[in-house]
Amino acid sequence: MKINLKKALFMLTGTFLVAFGTYFFLAPNHIAAGGTSGIAIIINAVFPNLPIGLLMMGMEVILFTLGVIIIGPVFGGKTIFCSFFISALILLLEKIYPHIKPFSSDILVQLIFGILICGMGMGIVFNTGASTGGTDIIAKIINKYTKISIGKSVLIADITVTIIATIVLGVNKGLYAILGVILNSTIIDKVIISLNSYKQVSIISNSGKSIQDFIINELERSATIYYAKGAYREDKKEVIITILNRKQLLKLKEYIKKLDNRAFITVNDINEVLGEGFSNTI
């Protein structure tokens, strides 16, 4: 239940960021940086009376059905929650802040802020095993069958939208859209990597048993024990190796500092961990 609640909070945070960035930064400048939001922005630019949120909802139904059939109902359930929540948020924002205008005349700055916010949100959502719907479902399908990273898959799926944006909205807006798609794919990959980064910790200490107990009982992680011989004294050493997230590492460092301030500790960055207790995808 704790894990499900945590994932739900992450999904809510991610979807809010996507809706916020789209409505306040991308839509007012008619920057169609991919996705159903991009398609909706293009249609809205031609037919202003058609609400962006409503257009997005219509497209989501078709692509959601495709996602359920190809990827599965669990992914589909999470995606429909995220996609319709984004559409509903944008509809709500349209009611609260109608006829929103650009914050400034500098489109590039607004593009960067909008894509940064949306990319972070999409990365968070993808990391929960869902998607924000629309062309992101196509990206998830590409990722599943080709193992191309999510960010690059989004780039492949959205490049068509940016080409249409160039034709409908003009070369300048189209070029901004292409830049936005490239930035978006990069940010998504960076966010996913940062959310899944761990630390590999190696510890040599005279209080090895206490440290092992702390890792297992307090941090709820396991560890691997190696035996090595010290080069200076040629004495037998016990090396404890474990993989932790940042929060767990801070707790372990504080504990070891109080227990044995002469302990030898090395820490390495790990970008991906597969197996029991971590990702189940191998």
UniProtKB/TrEMBL annotation:
Keywords: Cell membrane, Membrane, Transmembrane, Transmembrane helix. The keyword RNA-binding does not apply. It is a multi-pass membrane protein. Its main location: membrane. The chain crosses the membrane at residues 7-25, 31-50, 62-92, 107-129, 150-169, 175-193. It is found in: Cell membrane. The keyword GTP-binding does not apply. Residues 221-275 form the DUF2179 domain. This is YitT family protein. The lineage of its organism: Bacteria, Bacillati, Bacillota, Clostridia, Eubacteriales.
